[in-house]
Design goal:
Jelly Rolls; alpha+beta; five-stranded antiparallel sheet; Arc Repressor Mutant, subunit A; about 20% strand; 2 domains; about 300 residues
Length: about 300
Protein backbone atom coordinates (compact mmCIF):
# COMPACT_ATOMS: atom_id res chain seq x y z
CA UNK A 1 0.00 0.00 0.00
CA UNK A 2 1.48 3.35 -1.06
CA UNK A 3 1.69 6.27 1.37
CA UNK A 4 1.16 9.90 0.42
CA UNK A 5 1.63 12.91 2.72
CA UNK A 6 -0.14 16.14 1.80
CA UNK A 7 -0.32 19.54 3.55
CA UNK A 8 -2.75 22.21 2.39
CA UNK A 9 -1.98 25.88 3.00
CA UNK A 10 -5.07 27.24 1.22
CA UNK A 11 -8.66 26.08 0.86
CA UNK A 12 -8.26 26.31 -2.92
CA UNK A 13 -5.62 23.56 -2.80
CA UNK A 14 -7.92 21.26 -0.86
CA UNK A 15 -10.77 21.85 -3.31
CA UNK A 16 -8.43 21.05 -6.21
CA UNK A 17 -7.33 17.86 -4.42
CA UNK A 18 -10.98 16.78 -4.23
CA UNK A 19 -11.60 17.70 -7.86
CA UNK A 20 -13.97 20.51 -6.86
CA UNK A 21 -14.31 24.08 -8.16
CA UNK A 22 -12.52 26.83 -6.24
CA UNK A 23 -14.25 27.86 -2.97
CA UNK A 24 -16.74 30.71 -3.12
CA UNK A 25 -14.88 32.29 -0.18
CA UNK A 26 -11.07 31.91 0.07
CA UNK A 27 -11.32 31.61 3.86
CA UNK A 28 -14.47 29.47 4.26
CA UNK A 29 -16.12 26.59 2.42
CA UNK A 30 -18.35 23.55 2.77
CA UNK A 31 -17.35 20.51 0.72
CA UNK A 32 -19.12 17.20 0.08
CA UNK A 33 -17.41 13.92 -0.74
CA UNK A 34 -19.61 11.14 -2.10
CA UNK A 35 -18.97 7.53 -3.06
CA UNK A 36 -21.00 8.30 -6.18
CA UNK A 37 -18.50 10.97 -7.23
CA UNK A 38 -15.03 9.39 -7.52
CA UNK A 39 -12.25 11.57 -6.17
CA UNK A 40 -8.92 11.46 -4.38
CA UNK A 41 -10.55 10.63 -1.02
CA UNK A 42 -13.18 8.10 -2.08
CA UNK A 43 -10.80 6.26 -4.40
CA UNK A 44 -8.03 5.68 -1.84
CA UNK A 45 -9.01 2.10 -0.98
CA UNK A 46 -5.49 0.96 -1.88
CA UNK A 47 -3.68 3.97 -0.42
CA UNK A 48 -2.52 5.46 2.83
CA UNK A 49 -2.85 9.25 2.93
CA UNK A 50 -1.67 11.60 5.68
CA UNK A 51 -3.47 14.96 5.53
CA UNK A 52 -2.84 18.24 7.36
CA UNK A 53 -3.68 21.88 6.71
CA UNK A 54 -3.40 25.48 7.88
CA UNK A 55 -7.14 25.73 8.63
CA UNK A 56 -9.83 24.28 10.88
CA UNK A 57 -12.07 21.49 9.66
CA UNK A 58 -15.28 19.92 10.98
CA UNK A 59 -16.36 16.71 9.25
CA UNK A 60 -19.46 14.53 9.44
CA UNK A 61 -18.75 11.15 7.84
CA UNK A 62 -20.08 7.64 7.24
CA UNK A 63 -17.42 5.02 6.58
CA UNK A 64 -18.21 1.60 5.08
CA UNK A 65 -14.69 0.19 5.15
CA UNK A 66 -11.13 1.20 5.79
CA UNK A 67 -9.53 2.87 8.76
CA UNK A 68 -8.99 6.39 10.03
CA UNK A 69 -6.02 6.97 12.32
CA UNK A 70 -5.13 9.84 14.59
CA UNK A 71 -1.53 9.17 15.54
CA UNK A 72 -1.01 5.40 15.88
CA UNK A 73 -4.49 4.23 16.84
CA UNK A 74 -7.61 3.73 14.75
CA UNK A 75 -11.19 4.31 15.79
CA UNK A 76 -14.53 2.92 14.72
CA UNK A 77 -16.48 5.36 12.61
CA UNK A 78 -19.08 3.25 10.82
CA UNK A 79 -21.96 5.29 12.20
CA UNK A 80 -22.35 9.05 12.06
CA UNK A 81 -18.97 10.36 13.18
CA UNK A 82 -17.65 13.89 13.67
CA UNK A 83 -13.97 14.71 13.36
CA UNK A 84 -12.56 18.07 14.45
CA UNK A 85 -9.14 19.20 13.29
CA UNK A 86 -7.13 22.27 14.16
CA UNK A 87 -4.41 23.78 11.95
CA UNK A 88 -1.30 21.57 11.62
CA UNK A 89 -3.06 18.49 13.02
CA UNK A 90 -2.56 15.29 11.01
CA UNK A 91 -5.06 12.59 10.14
CA UNK A 92 -4.10 9.32 8.44
CA UNK A 93 -6.53 7.58 6.09
CA UNK A 94 -5.93 3.91 5.24
CA UNK A 95 -7.99 2.04 2.65
CA UNK A 96 -10.88 4.47 3.07
CA UNK A 97 -14.32 4.17 1.50
CA UNK A 98 -17.05 6.74 2.15
CA UNK A 99 -20.72 5.81 2.09
CA UNK A 100 -23.30 8.27 0.87
CA UNK A 101 -22.01 11.79 1.51
CA UNK A 102 -19.42 13.02 3.95
CA UNK A 103 -19.41 16.79 4.48
CA UNK A 104 -16.65 19.01 5.78
CA UNK A 105 -16.73 22.64 6.92
CA UNK A 106 -13.40 24.38 6.39
CA UNK A 107 -12.41 27.78 7.73
CA UNK A 108 -9.21 29.73 8.15
CA UNK A 109 -8.42 31.47 11.42
CA UNK A 110 -8.66 34.80 9.60
CA UNK A 111 -12.33 34.08 8.87
CA UNK A 112 -13.17 34.07 12.61
CA UNK A 113 -10.77 36.82 13.61
CA UNK A 114 -12.52 39.64 15.48
CA UNK A 115 -15.57 37.49 16.24
CA UNK A 116 -16.45 36.01 19.65
CA UNK A 117 -16.17 32.52 18.18
CA UNK A 118 -12.38 32.94 18.00
CA UNK A 119 -12.23 33.06 21.79
CA UNK A 120 -14.93 30.41 22.19
CA UNK A 121 -13.10 27.92 20.01
CA UNK A 122 -10.19 27.87 22.46
CA UNK A 123 -12.53 26.43 25.09
CA UNK A 124 -13.46 23.47 22.91
CA UNK A 125 -10.75 20.97 23.71
CA UNK A 126 -12.05 18.56 21.08
CA UNK A 127 -10.09 20.43 18.42
CA UNK A 128 -7.00 19.02 20.16
CA UNK A 129 -8.33 15.48 20.60
CA UNK A 130 -6.65 12.80 18.59
CA UNK A 131 -6.39 9.04 19.13
CA UNK A 132 -9.71 7.17 19.39
CA UNK A 133 -11.46 10.41 20.23
CA UNK A 134 -13.95 11.09 17.44
CA UNK A 135 -17.47 12.13 18.38
CA UNK A 136 -19.96 9.32 17.73
CA UNK A 137 -23.47 10.68 17.26
CA UNK A 138 -26.78 9.10 18.09
CA UNK A 139 -29.36 9.19 15.23
CA UNK A 140 -31.12 12.20 16.79
CA UNK A 141 -27.83 14.00 17.37
CA UNK A 142 -26.73 13.31 13.82
CA UNK A 143 -30.02 14.66 12.50
CA UNK A 144 -29.54 17.88 14.48
CA UNK A 145 -25.92 18.35 13.37
CA UNK A 146 -26.80 17.54 9.77
CA UNK A 147 -29.55 20.17 9.89
CA UNK A 148 -27.11 22.82 11.10
CA UNK A 149 -24.65 21.91 8.35
CA UNK A 150 -27.52 22.20 5.85
CA UNK A 151 -28.16 25.76 7.02
CA UNK A 152 -24.48 26.69 6.88
CA UNK A 153 -24.10 25.12 3.44
CA UNK A 154 -27.19 26.90 2.11
CA UNK A 155 -25.88 30.26 3.32
CA UNK A 156 -22.45 29.49 1.88
CA UNK A 157 -23.95 28.84 -1.59
CA UNK A 158 -26.29 31.81 -1.30
CA UNK A 159 -25.38 35.09 -2.95
CA UNK A 160 -22.90 36.51 -0.45
CA UNK A 161 -23.86 39.86 1.06
CA UNK A 162 -23.10 41.90 4.18
CA UNK A 163 -25.12 39.48 6.37
CA UNK A 164 -23.62 36.23 5.07
CA UNK A 165 -20.57 36.00 7.30
CA UNK A 166 -22.42 36.85 10.50
CA UNK A 167 -25.14 34.30 9.75
CA UNK A 168 -22.57 31.58 8.99
CA UNK A 169 -20.60 32.33 12.16
CA UNK A 170 -23.76 32.32 14.25
CA UNK A 171 -24.76 28.90 12.93
CA UNK A 172 -21.20 27.61 13.29
CA UNK A 173 -21.15 28.79 16.89
CA UNK A 174 -24.37 26.83 17.54
CA UNK A 175 -22.91 23.70 15.92
CA UNK A 176 -19.80 23.88 18.11
CA UNK A 177 -21.89 24.30 21.25
CA UNK A 178 -23.95 21.23 20.37
CA UNK A 179 -20.78 19.26 19.66
CA UNK A 180 -19.47 20.21 23.09
CA UNK A 181 -22.76 19.03 24.61
CA UNK A 182 -22.66 15.72 22.73
CA UNK A 183 -19.04 15.11 23.75
CA UNK A 184 -20.10 15.50 27.35
CA UNK A 185 -22.81 12.90 26.73
CA UNK A 186 -20.16 10.61 25.25
CA UNK A 187 -18.02 11.00 28.37
CA UNK A 188 -21.02 10.20 30.58
CA UNK A 189 -21.87 7.15 28.49
CA UNK A 190 -18.29 5.98 28.81
CA UNK A 191 -18.48 6.49 32.56
CA UNK A 192 -21.63 4.38 32.80
CA UNK A 193 -20.20 1.55 30.70
CA UNK A 194 -16.56 1.61 31.77
CA UNK A 195 -15.63 3.18 35.07
CA UNK A 196 -12.04 1.95 35.10
CA UNK A 197 -10.41 4.91 33.37
CA UNK A 198 -8.96 6.14 36.67
CA UNK A 199 -7.62 2.65 37.44
CA UNK A 200 -5.88 2.55 34.05
CA UNK A 201 -4.54 6.05 34.64
CA UNK A 202 -3.09 5.01 38.01
CA UNK A 203 -1.65 1.79 36.56
CA UNK A 204 0.19 3.73 33.86
CA UNK A 205 1.41 6.22 36.46
CA UNK A 206 2.72 3.41 38.67
CA UNK A 207 4.38 1.80 35.68
CA UNK A 208 6.08 5.08 34.83
CA UNK A 209 7.34 5.48 38.39
CA UNK A 210 8.59 1.86 38.46
CA UNK A 211 10.40 2.22 35.13
CA UNK A 212 12.21 5.28 36.42
CA UNK A 213 13.38 3.76 39.71
CA UNK A 214 16.72 2.69 38.27
CA UNK A 215 17.08 5.76 36.10
CA UNK A 216 16.96 9.48 36.72
CA UNK A 217 13.70 9.90 38.58
CA UNK A 218 11.12 12.41 37.40
CA UNK A 219 7.49 13.11 38.18
CA UNK A 220 5.19 11.44 35.63
CA UNK A 221 3.83 13.93 33.12
CA UNK A 222 0.21 13.86 32.04
CA UNK A 223 1.45 13.80 28.43
CA UNK A 224 3.47 10.63 29.06
CA UNK A 225 0.55 8.85 30.73
CA UNK A 226 -1.88 9.95 28.01
CA UNK A 227 0.46 8.69 25.28
CA UNK A 228 0.71 5.32 27.01
CA UNK A 229 -3.10 5.17 27.10
CA UNK A 230 -3.35 6.14 23.39
CA UNK A 231 -5.11 9.42 24.22
CA UNK A 232 -4.35 13.09 23.98
CA UNK A 233 -3.77 14.88 27.31
CA UNK A 234 -6.88 17.04 26.87
CA UNK A 235 -9.20 14.16 26.06
CA UNK A 236 -7.86 12.15 29.02
CA UNK A 237 -8.24 15.12 31.35
CA UNK A 238 -11.79 15.86 30.16
CA UNK A 239 -12.82 12.19 30.50
CA UNK A 240 -11.33 11.96 34.01
CA UNK A 241 -13.08 15.21 34.95
CA UNK A 242 -16.44 13.65 34.12
CA UNK A 243 -15.60 10.34 35.84
CA UNK A 244 -13.91 11.67 38.99
CA UNK A 245 -14.61 15.41 39.17
CA UNK A 246 -10.88 16.08 38.90
CA UNK A 247 -8.57 16.76 35.95
CA UNK A 248 -5.70 14.47 34.99
CA UNK A 249 -3.21 16.74 36.78
CA UNK A 250 -5.34 16.84 39.93
CA UNK A 251 -5.63 13.04 39.92
CA UNK A 252 -1.88 12.74 39.37
CA UNK A 253 -1.11 15.01 42.32
CA UNK A 254 -3.66 13.25 44.52
CA UNK A 255 -2.10 9.86 43.81
CA UNK A 256 1.43 11.16 44.47
CA UNK A 257 0.32 12.63 47.79
CA UNK A 258 -1.32 9.34 48.80
CA UNK A 259 1.91 7.49 48.01
CA UNK A 260 3.84 10.12 49.94
CA UNK A 261 1.70 9.56 53.03
CA UNK A 262 2.70 5.88 53.10
CA UNK A 263 6.38 6.61 52.46
CA UNK A 264 6.56 9.32 55.15
CA UNK A 265 5.51 6.83 57.82
CA UNK A 266 8.49 4.55 57.20
CA UNK A 267 11.00 4.80 60.09
CA UNK A 268 14.03 5.67 57.98
CA UNK A 269 12.24 8.07 55.62
CA UNK A 270 13.01 11.77 55.37
CA UNK A 271 11.13 14.45 53.50
CA UNK A 272 13.98 14.62 50.99
CA UNK A 273 14.12 10.86 50.33
CA UNK A 274 10.35 10.66 49.89
CA UNK A 275 10.39 13.58 47.47
CA UNK A 276 13.20 11.94 45.49
CA UNK A 277 11.47 8.54 45.41
CA UNK A 278 8.39 10.15 43.91
CA UNK A 279 10.40 11.98 41.25
CA UNK A 280 10.46 15.50 42.73
CA UNK A 281 13.70 17.25 41.91
CA UNK A 282 13.34 19.69 44.79
CA UNK A 283 12.03 18.66 48.26
CA UNK A 284 10.74 22.20 48.76
CA UNK A 285 8.35 21.84 45.82
CA UNK A 286 7.14 18.51 47.17
CA UNK A 287 6.59 20.02 50.62
CA UNK A 288 4.57 22.93 49.18
CA UNK A 289 2.38 20.59 47.12
CA UNK A 290 1.87 18.27 50.11
CA UNK A 291 0.72 21.14 52.33
CA UNK A 292 -1.52 22.53 49.62
CA UNK A 293 -3.30 19.19 49.28
CA UNK A 294 -3.39 18.09 52.95
CA UNK A 295 -3.14 21.29 54.98
CA UNK A 296 -0.04 19.90 56.75
CA UNK A 297 3.65 19.95 55.97
CA UNK A 298 5.24 16.50 55.49
CA UNK A 299 6.91 16.86 58.91
CA UNK A 300 3.64 17.83 60.59
CA UNK A 301 1.95 14.85 58.95
CA UNK A 302 4.58 12.45 60.36
CA UNK A 303 4.33 14.02 63.80
CA UNK A 304 0.54 13.66 63.79
CA UNK A 305 0.92 9.89 63.43
CA UNK A 306 3.74 9.62 65.95
Amino acid sequence: MTMQRIHFTELTEFHKFLGLPAPENPLFSVVSVSSRKPGNITSCADKEIVLSSDFYSISLKHITSGEIFYGRTKYDCKNGTMIFMAPEQEVRLVGLNIESTGRTILFHEDFIRGHKIKEEIRKYNYFSYAVNEALHLSPKEEQMISGLIDQIEAEYHNNQDEFSKELILSQLDTLLKYANRFYHRQFLHRKENSSDLLDKFIDEMEGYIADNRQEEKTIPAVEDIANAMAMTPRYLSDALKVETGKTAMENLHLHLINKAKDLLLKPDATVATVAYDLGFEYPQYFARLFKKKTGLTPTEYRQSYN
